[in-house]
Specification:
404 residues; alpha/beta; 2 domains; seven-stranded mixed sheet; six-stranded parallel sheet; disordered N terminus
Length: 404
Amino acid sequence: MTSIPKDARVRLFRHCTVVLPDRCVENCELLVRDGFIAYVGKAKQRVPRGAECIDLLGGLISPGFVDIHVHGGGGSDFMDGTVEAVRTAIRCHARHGTTTLFPTTTTGSPTQIHAMLQAVATTQVDWKPQVGSRIAGVHLYGPYFASEKVGCHSRDGRRDPHAAEYNQYFATKLVRIATCAAELPGADRFYRSAFRHGCLVTCGHSNSSWTEMQRAFRNGMRHVDHFWCAMSSVVSLRSRFSTPMQASMEQFVLAEKEMSTEVIADGCHLSNELLSFAYTMKGAERLCLVTDSSRALDMPPGKYAFGDRNDNQWFLHDGQVGRNLDGKGLASSTAGMDRMVGNMLLATRAPLHEVIRMASLTPAERAGIASECGSLEVGKRADFVLLNKRFQAKRTFIAGEEVE
């Protein structure tokens, strides 16, 4: 844990219910010293000398959300490759309770991906909590997808992995999560390199079989992107392998205890039955909530660019979700993490603390940053969100400072 200086700004948040990793506790207070949690628990009689007191009026305090799969918001996509786009998106997500996120690439050219990485790096230099969500690293998601599982991404930007390209991305030390379809030529080398660079190694946009997933697992892969979306199934593998029918990504992830995955709980991508099934099978410690949100988050219905706005890859936002122009498929979500939490609660009837865990501590653990954030514990950053009775984010605090 990070040490907390004795001589520091002290803020006391009082009269709240706090969500801890294993329970919710009423009549609590949260003491923040120099941006870190110094105390969390039942209210004490004495107020520390010099503390600024903030009355939360009995509100519900959740740890700040951690989003490991997010493309944009507020009209901007991280792949626009500008500091302005990055700042717009992180401010947008902070309004929905996300305090830490991993800007996520789409398919695109090396030039576009490098521009995105540079914009993220520049934003990190003078970042302050009031600006928006903290960037913990980049999720290298596109371009290494299977050709038949590209989804709403630009097919022209898809390619097989080559070490000369992806090692340049890893050399920036910004990439902390790395995705590649397991069946692609060179996927094994990609996984090994990503693992050596300390990434959460994932498989996504893939039509891989159990055997290919098993080989990927041996090379360090431990996570699958957005379960049931753009992934193999027993039926989809028939076109590759004919008979006998092959086990898919779904069976491998559900059978392998070390594997984690994620769901988009916006009410549009997956039915309540599938959300409940995922929770039942993987549990709160191996299931992450993600937004996978596009630039259309918090924007009016209309036509929007997916990925770099110059690529002319368009989708329709109908007010609830992004859809392909032909109406035959979905094109990312248009919801924030607070909506994911509320929908997951309704779909699963899981305890509140477990649903919150899926949006905070579990993704922090999978991304290797749980010592810093993801739960309300002494020594961690004071990242938290005040939720209303419908579990919508009302106020977001990062390092104890309220996001403007």
